[in-house]
Amino acid sequence: MAERENEIHARHNGTSQIPIQPPPLIGSSRRRRGIIPRPRSPPEPAAVGAALVAPRLPPPPARSIRDLIIMGESKWMGKRWEEMDTDVLVKIFKELNLVELSPVSQVCRLWRLACSDPLIWGTLDFGLLKSNFIQTRASPYIWVDDRSDKRLAKILRVAMAISRGNVNCMIFHYNLYMKDEHLHYISQRSPNLKRLVMPAWNRISRAGICQAIERWGELESLTMPTIGHPPYIMEGLANSCKNFKELKIMGSFDLLFASAVTTYLPKLKVLSLRCSKVTMGALQCVLNSLEHLEVLNISHCLLFEMATNGRRQVIHELDNKALERASRLREFHHCQSRQCVACQRMMLDEGILRWYRYEDWFWRRDEVRSLDLKDYGRLFGAQCEMLTSVD
Questions:
Q1: Cystine design at 166: which of 101, 121, 249, 386 (Cβ 3.0–4.6 Å)?
Q2: What count of Cα atoms within 13 Å lies in the side-chain half-sphere of residue 91?
Q3: Residue 178: Cβ within 10 Å count
Q4: Could you tell me which InterPro entries the record lists for this protein (predicted)?
């Protein structure tokens, strides 16, 4: 009885020393038998009341842009630019033009390597680059402003330095009159060239042409204007370019030209004479002699033959014999219609088309898909054409 009174007195004064006994443990055997349920997880702090809400953490310290740049390996920035995969850099640099690539290629070794990737330099299209010139009566029948030559040399130096020999296709405007030194420069620095759309030959010597062809051993396709003596070019292609298979002529194609082609390039597979002045004798020579020819394009050509009285007679329809010989080809494109706009232009210009009179894209088109130049390339677009002037 006295112990009971002392316990009540101690609880009243807050000085109880009696330990609080924990609840009895629930045996695992009873839980397995399903007699006593498992204890529930404690409730969330928010359910207990506002007094038990977790305290807020202090905000992270503010970082400047400079700090984030320095933390190149942190989760904020990922990899550094100089550590990015080359494939990613190439995909980015493909969207740049020649003027923009020039300073980018000088940032570091990795960027320079990415800037010279063959995926960027598959086609180097200078189709917008022209010379400032006037026609003359004396050979080479053209005079070119010295500033045009300096500008061309400057642009070629930049392009050849960045591409590092990875250009596969090179396109020049028909009114770009380069010299031997220009052709020599690009032939030395683009040994893997497979396709060339050649500008006018006026200022290039015979030795200059042959030397360039010797360096382009992998050349497969050539688009060229008419030249006074074509056999030496055809012979050079036969000796140096073992995989040569495509030829496009822009200008005149007579029996001398046709004989040179059939003699030195008997395995030619594709020939386009689109918008050219062609004699029927030259056409018959091609159809009879080129046994491996698969594709022939004479669309919008001015076909003619010499009559007995010495006058030129224009042919508007091919005879059955020519059509029968052409039927063995995989592709044969021809159009000599009076209703065709391109054919009307050929008649108006008497077979020597004045390209400058017509749309900028007109000279780039071809019915043969592999020879069609499509739109102007990104590497040397209109912006580059304006920004590459010479002071």
A1: 121
A2: 5
A3: 28
A4: F-box-like_dom_sf, F-box_dom, LRR_dom_sf
pLDDT value, residue 31: 46
pLDDT of the residue at 199: 79
Report the chain's terminal Cα–Cα distance, integer Å.
119
Around Cβ 231, how many Cβ atoms within 10 Å? 15
Other C-beta atoms within 10 Å of 83: how many?
A: 10
User: Does 113 map to a domain?
Assistant: no
Please give the radius of gyration of the chain, using alpha carbons only, rounded to the nearest integer: 40
What 3-state class would DSSP assign to 225?
strand
Residue 141 region, left (φ>0) first, then alpha (ψ -120 to 50), else beta? left
DSSP letter assigned to residue 121: S
User: pLDDT by residue (tens digit) across 24-74?
Assistant: 544 444 444 444 455 555 555 544 444 444 456 566 565 554 554 455 444
Length, in residues, of the chain: 391
Residue 123, C-beta contacts closer than 8 angstroms, at least 6 positions apart = 167, 168, 169, 170, 171, 377, 379
pLDDT in tens, 327-372: 999 999 999 888 999 999 999 999 899 998 999 899 999 999 999 9
Overall number of domains in the chain: 1
Which residue from 130, 144, 240, 260 is spatially nearest to 191, judged by alpha carbons? 240
**CATH classification of the domain holding 160:** 3.80.10.10
DSSP 315: E
Return d(Cα 148, Cα 203) in angstroms, integer.
13
Is 273 among the domain residues?
yes
Does 56 reside within a domain? no
Is 364 within a domain? yes
Task: For residue 208, give its domain range.
Answer: 121-388
* Strand order from edge to edge, sheet including 169-172: 123-126, 169-172, 195-197, 221-225, 246-250, 270-272, 295-299, 331-335
* CA dihedral sign of residues 258, 264, 270, 272: negative
